[in-house]
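Researcher: Next sequence.
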Amino acid sequence: MAAIPVASPRLRSTTRPKAASLAIVWKDVLDLSLLYACVAIATFVFSSLVGHVLFETTRQRGIEAKHRAERVARQEVVLKRNIALLTAPARVESWAQERGFLTIEQVGELAAAGVAPETPNAIVAAFDANAASHPSGENEHGSRAP
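Model: Next structure:
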């Protein structure tokens, strides 16, 4: 004969959870909520502080860049004035005459007279005369005059 299982009756508990266990659950919820609020406030304060520091750093760098730009603009004016003085045609001509350079007209007069210039600077002036004869600025070799 085979054994037939007999179902045993289940006993139901009629007792409710204790009130103390419900209070523990609420205490845990309250503790976690407080922890979340503290973390959120700390994060907000920290990120605000970091944001203000970065903003102030950027503002200071902007002020420094503005001062540097003003200094550079003043120096640029001085340099432009110096360049204008150094590259003035009268200044360049006096510099060339002090060092024995011949003008294009003088080289032309020497060439017309059949006299070869004796100074090496005349060669530079002759080169400039050659460059001036070509409107494109290129000499007979296809390169530009300095």
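Model: The radius of gyration is 48 Å. The chain has a mean pLDDT of 79.
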